[in-house]
Amino acid sequence: MTTNGMIETRSLGHSDVQVTPIGLGVMEFSGGGGGLGRMFPVMTQADKNAIVQAALDGGVNWFDTAEIYGNGMSEKSLAAGLQAAGVADDEVVIATKWFPFFRTAGNIPQTIGDRLRYLAPYPIDLYQIHQPWSFSSVEAEMNAMADLVEAGKIRAVGVSNFNADQMRRAHAALAKRGLPLASNQMLYNMLHREIETNGVLAVAKELGISIIAYTPLGSGVLTGKYHENPALIEKKGFFWRRTVSKDVARSGALIAAMKEMAAAHDVTVAQVALNWTVNFHGETIVAIPAATKVSQAEQNAAAMHFRLTDAELARLDELAR
Prior knowledge:
- The chain is an alpha/beta fold.
- The protein is built from twelve helices and 13 strands.
């Protein structure tokens, strides 16, 4: 563990990549691009720059993006935002992902040039397999990633949405090349804790692999806004509305306790949720909340500037179950 100003950083697994407990996920920067970009509204580059600056000002030292986020739109926007902030290439950690659908491991070296070009002048610190869906084996993918490390094109290797067995296979394949599996990026928050029971978290702790938690605020449920104003739920799409309605219905007591703790620490309910996520399991879990507003980026980063007590962490654990 090292310090980033006032904020302690953590190693991603057994790699030498050091990150703050909370980073910034920039999938929302893909609006207007291809692929997943069609799902998001277009943001101006000025707005993206302001969000990146707010995250940096709050102590965040790393950003997570992916090839599929607008077919490079998110990566380009992130690089532009970091340049606008005057950040040097060795002052920030960049994580991105290779999309495996309908591809083989042979595509990994073929497309790394695009990733590096879109993110330039920033290097790729963590390169992740986005899903366990390729036509190649886990072992073939890890060997292709290890080749990139040896070629100096990436620093560390991660995966995303891999189950416990796939994690073990990836770890073993990289170990044969003298490399660690740094991380597995998974859905995790107080209301969605499947990794605690399906073996993923157990394997992560056993092998020293970090879990990068995406959707750590439960699609907004863990900010408390839908409990305060249920009418907001009706403005969303049908499938999203059905899932969120269930989460809201089962989390009233949890949100009430989070409000008490937020008041005691002079923070927001969302900050309590993020603080729990990155501290309940020690240093194993780091989180990448998104932001579409400067205020959200500021709030996310500030969740690192206090710590819930062990008693508070345990109480929220019990209520969340």
